[in-house]
Amino acid sequence: FHCHQKWGHGYFNMKDADTVGADKYFHAKANYEAAQQGIVGSTVAKIISDLRELSDSYRNIHEKGYTPEFSKKDSEEDQRANEEGRELGRQNPMKPPHELLEHLMPKKLPKRYRKRW
After folding, report:
1. Confidence of residue 1 (pLDDT cuts 50, 70, 90)
2. 24 φ, ψ to 5°?
3. Which residues 6+ apart lie within 8 Å of 111 measured at CB?
4. CA 43, CA 73: separation in Å to the nearest integer?
């Protein structure tokens, strides 16, 4: 179980990419990579994703001033990306994520984030 080396990097990569719409790709990619490690990776990724969305929803409403409706919609979209990543990761334990998650990559995503691992 070695996916801990990758966990956390996705968040910093997402911030560094600074590309509108890239968050869904990075959500899916992190969950994909975790799920490739087996049931433990998939379960931990779900727990982290759920906690992250809870935290983000609170911050969106109370710190960023977003409406509850907007925050709920954003959270639901993030969770769909998370689940898609986990499902594809479980089904493809040896395949790099960029090929299967390409549909979530915004056109302006920097090239360095389009590569294999």
Report:
1. very low
2. -65, -40
3. none
4. 23
